[in-house]
Specification:
This protein has 261 residues and is an alpha/beta fold. The chain contains eleven helices and nine strands. It has helices at residues 19-26, 46-53, 66-75, 92-100, 114-122, 143-150, 168-178, 188-198, 201-204, 214-223, 235-246; strands at residues 7-10, 30-33, 37-40, 60-63, 86-89, 131-137, 154-165, 182-185, 209-211. The two termini are 36 Å apart.
């Protein structure tokens, strides 16, 4: 009997063999790319470049994505992060990216996500007069910056990258080529782009639709599509949810050990 590999569309802007695709493959599924968004440099790179040059002036660097870390590293010309800089990341994968650029023991929350990170940050320092750099997506959330500013921190938010929707006809063509049986929707912007290109019916026919994070699930619900949400906002949890709830794990596929978010 031949092994059946279920086709799962991924909407992330990642190359073949990216971290989500790798997680799905480990659980015996076949990831098929259907990127709905693209990440591009900021319209004005000046603030990021200045912050990168003057990073030694900051007490904290707080990041919500590995992409923001990468953009900052490019702006620094590959120079490592200052040795005395304290760092914090939204999850373990982003923290690992910080460590590759010289960060030592970044602060991470017990569970991945901005709300949990804010809880951890509140207990990590006094914050008054602390200089904080937060490179982020142009459309990224500002809750942490506002909360720390309310505690007396001097927070500089700089745009590290922008998220733009791919053209609808390009998304629709990729979807037809992917011919998926399930889909992982990675962000609210990906949800909006996917529904704009396809409508809701192709998504409603799938079982299941998985959203990374509650905000993405709420965006899908507002568009008329129900979605499942993994218990943790990481790729291993996404793949495990697909395998556990559908029974689609391929025969002989190894069950990876649970990883911290």
């Amino acid at each position: 009997m031949s092994e059946r590999r279920v086709r799962v569309a991924t909407t992330r802007d990642e190359a073949a063999g990216g971290p989500l695709a790798e997680a799905l493959a480990r659980w015996g599924m076949e990831p098929v790319r259907c990127a709905t968004i693209a990440h591009v440099p900021p319209l004005d790179p000046g603030p990021l470049e200045r912050a990168a040059r003057e990073l030694e002036r900051y007490d904290w660097l707080i990041v919500a994505s590995a992409r923001a870390v990468a953009a900052l590293a490019v702006a620094r010309g590959g120079r490592p992060l200052p040795s005395g800089l304290r760092t914090a990341a939204v999850g373990a994968k982003t923290a690992a990216r910080l460590e590759t650029h010289g960060a030592v023991s970044p602060l991470i929350p017990r569970t991945a996500g901005a709300a949990a990170l804010l809880v951890a940050l509140r207990a990590a320092d006094e914050w008054r007069d602390r200089r904080v750099l937060m490179p982020r997506a142009a459309e990224g959330g500002r809750e942490i910056a506002r909360a720390l500013g309310g505690r007396g921190a001097v927070v500089d938010e700089v745009v590290a990258y922008r998220t733009i929707e791919r053209p609808p006809d390009e998304i629709a063509s990729a979807w037809r080529a992917a011919a998926p049986e399930a889909v992982v929707v990675a962000s609210p912007s990906a949800a909006r782009a996917l529904v704009r290109a396809l409508g809701t019916e192709p998504l409603r026919r799938l079982e299941p639709v998985v959203a990374i994070g509650s905000k993405t699930a709420m965006a899908l619900m507002a568009l008329g599509v129900r979605a499942m949400v993994p218990p943790r906002a990481d790729f291993e949890a996404v793949a495990a949810l697909l395998a556990r709830t559908t029974g689609w794990q391929a025969p002989g596929a190894a069950v990876p050990e649970r990883r911290r978010s």
